């Protein structure tokens, strides 16, 4: 696991396009490239990549955003994106990415790491639960599309 670099941009764009397709959200390559380039340039995200072998091909990505919890009165991180190329699934890359995000969140003083995944993404649910994540039983989470 390592922080993304400018040299990873093409690989990360390719993975991100696959990630969006997995969740049935179409986006053109240029729009994805602009979004990721803006994330690289800002300080609002942590974007990590995984390689099966050091210096090898980038096979996975994880992106987390820092936020705040008013109820807990402290910082929280949102693991917003996690994707591993299908050819590298089972290699431990996803687990390593999740662990690195959690380790970095802890080092930064975050109270917790939260995430969401699709109801039918049973593989991801198994990974998250095996890493100590629990389904929220206290709150229902809602979202409203406002544009874009």
Structural account:
This protein is α+β, with helices and mostly antiparallel strands. The protein has a single domain (2-130), classed as Aminopeptidase (3-Layer(aba) Sandwich), CATH 3.40.630. The chain contains four helices and five strands. It has a five-stranded mixed beta sheet with strand order 1-2-3-4-5. Helix 1 (9-22) crosses helix 2.
Radius of gyration of CA atoms, rounded to a whole number = 15 Å
Number of separate domains: 1
Mean pLDDT: 93
- CATH superfamily annotation: Gcn5-related N-acetyltransferase (GNAT)
Instruction: Quickly count the helices.
Output: 4
The oligomerization state is: single chain
In this structure, how is the largest beta sheet organized?
A: 5 strands, mixed
CATH class: Alpha Beta
Derived from helix and strand composition plus strand pairing, the structural class reads: alpha+beta
Strand order across the largest sheet = 1-2-3-4-5
Q: What is the CATH architecture descriptor?
A: 3-Layer(aba) Sandwich
Strand runs, count: 5
Topology at a glance:
Elements: E1 2-3, H1 9-22, H2 29-41, E2 45-51, E3 58-69, E4 74-84, H3 93-107, E5 113-115, H4 122-130
Parallel strand pairs: 4-5
Antiparallel strand pairs: 1-2, 2-3, 3-4
């Amino acid at each position: 696991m390592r922080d993304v670099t400018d040299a990873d941009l093409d690989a990360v764009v390719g993975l991100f396009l696959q990630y969006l397709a997995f969740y049935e959200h179409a986006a053109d390559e240029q729009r994805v490239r602009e979004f990721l380039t803006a994330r690289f340039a800002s300080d609002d995200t942590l974007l990590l990549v995984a390689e099966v072998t050091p210096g090898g091909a980038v096979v996975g990505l994880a992106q987390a955003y820092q936020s705040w919890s008013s109820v807990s009165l402290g910082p929280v991180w949102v693991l917003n994106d996690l994707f591993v190329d299908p050819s590298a699934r089972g290699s431990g890359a996803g687990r390593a990415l999740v662990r690195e995000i959690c380790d970095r969140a802890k080092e930064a003083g975050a109270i917790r790491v939260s995430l969401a995944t699709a109801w039918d993404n049973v593989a991801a649910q198994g990974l998250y639960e095996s890493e100590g994540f629990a389904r929220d039983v206290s709150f229902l989470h809602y979202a409203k599309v406002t544009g874009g």
